[in-house]
Design brief:
By secondary structure, the chain is mainly α. The chain has one domain (22-149, 156-182). The chain is built from seven helices and no strands. The protein has helices at residues 22-36, 41-66, 84-97, 100-124, 126-131, 152-159, 162-188. Helix 1 (22-36) crosses helix 4 (100-124). The structure holds zinc ion. Zinc ion is lined by residues 51-52, 78, 82, 112, 116.
């Protein structure tokens, strides 16, 4: 009797890690600006990072609770929070209750998977970006994306990737320019509000 050992397929490149924090806050805020109108900006900002605040504890909590075995459809740190479905439900709840905070939260949430996809697209190409996106769940199947990390080294290399660093720098720049525009607007009159670097982006 002979046993054949199949060679393991080569690891695919890292699927996600394109945008971390300032990238989502700043670029998400910029992306939401045309639709924001009179929605409260701080809730939009919270929404831009809310998917990670939901999904990372969910995944790591499940992993810890179940010893990395049988996490069901949650395979990584992009799951329910990274879907347009959840953002849509929050928007709908905001509309039904007449609550601008929830609508702002939903708008920010909707920018998150868009930025994740664009950064993955720039870093890894269209196929990996599509595999790593949970945005259209469950239309794309019940299982959420599976990260393919080859180890801590790959994590750290991804954190230093030019795409990620560019997104973080651009997001931070937007926030700094917004704050400066807000201060200028504050000096020029109490009724002025800041929506971006131009004061009205
Ligand atoms: Zn995310």
């Amino acid at each position: 009797m002979t046993t054949s050992v199949k060679p393991r397929p080569p690891r695919k490149p890292l699927l996600y890690f394109g945008v971390i924090f300032f990238g989502h806050l700043g670029l998400g805020d910029a992306l939401a600006a045309p639709a924001r109108r009179d929605l409260p900006r701080r809730w939009v900002l919270l929404g831009t990072v809310a998917p990670d605040l939901l999904d990372k504890p969910l995944y790591f909590g499940l992993s810890w609770a179940r010893g990395h075995r049988g996490l069901g459809i949650v395979h990584g740190t992009r799951s329910f929070g990274h879907t347009f479905l959840l953002a849509g439900l929050v928007w709908w709840a905001g509309r039904a209750r007449g609550d601008a905070r929830l609508k702002g939260l939903a708008l920010g949430m909707a920018t998150h998977p868009v930025l994740d996809f664009l950064s993955d697209l720039a870093a890894f190409g269209p196929a990996a970006a599509a595999r790593g996106s949970a945005a259209f769940w469950p239309l794309t199947g019940w299982g959420f994306p599976v990260p393919t990390y080859a180890g801590l080294g790959e994590h750290l290399r991804a954190l230093a990737s030019p795409v990620l660093l560019s997104c973080e720098a651009a997001g931070l720049l937007w926030l700094v320019l917004s704050a400066a525009a807000g201060r200028r607007a504050g000096r020029s009159g109490p009724s002025s509000t800041s929506n971006g670097p131009s004061g009205r982006a």
